[in-house]
Write a structure and sequence with these properties.
The structure is a homodimer. By secondary structure, the first copy, chain A, is α/β, with parallel strands linked by helices. The first copy, chain A, is built from 11 helices and 13 strands. The first copy, chain A, has 2 domains: 127 residues, Aspartate Aminotransferase, domain 1 (Alpha-Beta Complex); 247 residues, Type I PLP-dependent aspartate aminotransferase-like (Major domain) (Aspartate Aminotransferase, domain 2, 3-Layer(aba) Sandwich), CATH 3.40.640.10. The first copy, chain A, is globular.
């Protein structure tokens, strides 16, 4: 299609867009049950819109925004059981995990064929990163209950291992790996220990406050070197915003890319991207101040309530069951018989339920985001019962 | 710093932010002369704010936004002299260049030690990409006039070369490499040819319409396989938005990452990121429709007018000169004597001029973005004269 010579009016364009985009799914419709993203918080939206021009790729131009990032990283670091944590916002968990994997590789130039050990439940971004970085990914098996087979994990560590990864909130089920046990495996070694809490980072800190007992997963485990956590997932911040949180400046001192020509002066980038949104940093700073600990806790409380509601309903339906007891606001549904969930997924999708299919683990994932209401779940349970009957699972 | 237990009021937070961020530099103040980013167009801002929740990392949820992306890529492809161009928006030029470099490497698994030939003027993102991908970067010299030494470039191509890169709008001076000549070097080879037009992509197409004669740089050169162009630079779109434009689906068919578990269904990612802004796609679609060819041309016209104004003024000042005749809205200032520009840069920075320092090429870069007005340049020239005198360059 050729570009128009003369532009259209704003009004006309907005009308076209309204029509064109009408068939996109809407978080508010109640049919999106399988997404880890949601509508950003209204206040975060407002603040972002005010500061969207800020470019942290050239921090000398926006020194106060850069300071705000430091403060926010520090505050999040403390939420994650650390002190003096450094790092920065990223475009999301994938960039954050890539940065961590690069650190793991580049800290060990002595290893010619670097390997990183991850659980089989690790996010796709580790496959992407390994592909980019020329790292061999060693994937540790899961046990039947989807927990990490820690003995197998340990057996994969060898003299080529430059990094190990634990997941605090797996993509498929929201489970937390035994971070303390992995930590012990790397004590007194030069192996970098990264925790991927892209989703869990803004859920787990609030669970103990709500009376849930959860395993240690953060900087409180002293061997943990870095953590990924995404403000644009459960932090309700504007897309794109991830975060990489690093235990100490020493770790990255020699690993940045020097950028000498910026308008703001000389700077070192740890990032893959050059131009880098500052608006999402300001909006998340503002959101943390607005919600406070209590605000986030209330949101998680509500998500967990809905999670328990759905758990109970699923337990009542013959033919399907929970893949695991949910630890956070993620649920896995599988068949009681062990039959493939593919048909179930297909039929539910026909009923317009947008879910996550994990064929490898034979489960359908539901993420109980803040946009998911109990009424949506009631509708879903009704359809689930019908579909289970229709395809003869019960 | 610890997170607040109870949040503050929105009003209070906005007050704090206004105060805190007051010392960030402002594009409108007229002192930012060295940035390739600017204030996004107001209409793009408005549209983005309406659609910021859209996540193209899960395109099945937003199929109409995904279609809009296809259309926009197609339209930009045509602007770049191609037909049936595929590709997508990225988080910026660095991710786009990384994707291109990965394609170059992965299309040639037969090469054990892959090399890519780039001009010495290539952007930092090629160094980053090469570091990540384990590619050896071969940098071709520039001639004294900052043009690519094409013979040296050719001499660096060997049996390990999986890719070559030409720049259409160098970071330092906005020059365009001899894309046709590079194209001829890779005719009938399996070497991938990528053009980095991150900045130039939304300048060059409009220059011939304004009567400027420019070298061929785009898909009109038949050997060009892919182009990087950033909507968030001269496209005036919201940060972060880059773009990777690829000549044919065949090139990438085997190179994506399969993501099976998305709420929207099965999809293949070419990207490094997972969650991916859809709002910037919608806003740029809208901006292209709003400005049309004429709107962009008028903006470029104005930038070029200011560029010529500044060129003339610099030519009048004894002690400094243009590093090269500007081809687009980027100017390089160097010393007539060949003396280092470091002191000049330092003194100008003391006068609060935010410029780009390219020590390697001994030049100070000025980017005449749409936020730069002639009055800003008048002020700058006045200070430049003073500083040149003060440090005895004349």
């Amino acid at each position: 299609m050729k570009m128009l010579e003369q532009g259209l009016s704003k009004k006309k364009i907005e009308e076209i867009l309204d029509k064109k985009l009408a068939k996109d799914y809407k978080y508010t419709s109640g049919s999106i049950l399988g997404s880890m993203c949601t509508i950003p918080h209204k206040f975060a939206q407002k603040i972002f819109c005010k500061y969207m021009h800020k470019n942290l790729g050239d921090p000398g131009l926006f020194p106060e925004t850069a300071k705000l990032e430091e403060q926010t990283v520090d505050e999040i670091g403390e939420l994650f059981g650390g002190t003096g944590i450094v790092g920065s916002f990223t475009t999301g968990g994938s960039e954050a995990n890539l940065i961590a994997m690069r650190i793991a590789r580049d800290r060990r130039p002595d290893i010619k064929h670097p390997e990183v050990v991850v659980p089989l439940s690790a996010h796709m971004s580790f496959d992407k990163s390994a592909d980019l970085l020329g790292i061999k990914l060693r994937k540790a098996r899961l046990k039947n209950n989807f927990e990490l087979d820690i003995d197998h994990f340990k057996s994969l560590i060898n003299e080529n291992t430059c990094g190990v990864v634990g997941i605090a909130g797996t993509t498929s089920l929201g489970l937390v790996d035994p971070i303390e046990k992995i930590g012990k495996m790397v004590t007194d070694t030069d192996i970098f220990f990264h925790v991927d809490a892209a989703f869990g980072g803004f859920v787990l800190p609030f669970l103990p406050q709500l009376g849930y007992s959860i395993p240690q997963w953060d900087f409180a485990v002293e061997q943990v070197d870095s953590i990924t956590a995404d403000p644009h997932k459960m932090g309700l911040n504007v897309i794109p915003s991830g975060g990489i949180f690093i235990k100490s400046e020493n770790i990255i001192q020699k690993l940045g890319f020097e950028i000498p020509y910026l308008a703001g002066g000389n700077f070192k980038h740890l990032h893959i991207v050059g131009t880098r949104p500052g608006g999402t940093v300001v909006s998340f700073w503002a959101l943390m101040k607005y919600l406070g600990n209590k605000g986030f806790r209330d949101i998680i409380h509500n998500c967990m309530k809905n999670t328990h509601y759905l758990s109970k309903q699923i337990n009542k339906i013959d033919g399907v069951k929970l893949a695991a007891e949910p630890l956070m606001n993620i649920l896995g549904i599988t068949t009681e018989s062990g039959e493939s969930i593919c048909e179930l997924d297909k039929m539910l999708r026909k009923h317009d339920w947008m879910l996550g299919k994990f064929e490898e683990f034979n489960l359908i994932r539901i993420v109980i985001m803040p946009h998911v209401k109990q009424s949506h779940l009631e509708n879903f349970v009704r359809d689930l019962e019908i579909v289970v009957k229709d395809i003869g699972l019960n």
